[in-house]
Design goal:
With about 80 residues, this protein is mainly α. It contains four helices and no strands. α2 crosses α3 and α3 crosses α4. The chain is globular and about 40 Å long. The two termini are about 25 Å apart.
Length: about 80
């Protein structure tokens, strides 16, 4: 993924996370859908960058990225 595309996705996801934070019940966990989007973006743009931009806990995001397994490879066909 190119950096400009990542920047736009990061801003959009940051807006969703900010909206959730404004409307959530106190100390409620972030919805799985937002975590899934953060994991997908972290695979493309880097865990530290995404954790810092959203902001979410780096350790939590890194653990979720690791648990999700390797990112699917584009064009993946054999040899």
């Amino acid at each position: 993924m190119e950096r400009n595309g990542n920047d736009a996705q990061l801003r959009a996801l940051g807006a969703k996370v900010a909206r959730w934070r404004r409307t959530r019940l106190w100390r409620s966990p972030m919805p799985a859908e937002l975590w899934a989007q953060a994991v997908e973006l972290a695979r493309a743009a880097g865990t530290f960058r995404v954790a810092r931009a959203l902001p979410v806990d780096y350790g939590s995001l890194a653990r979720r990225v690791a648990e999700a397994g390797p990112a699917p490879r584009a064009g993946g066909g054999g040899f």
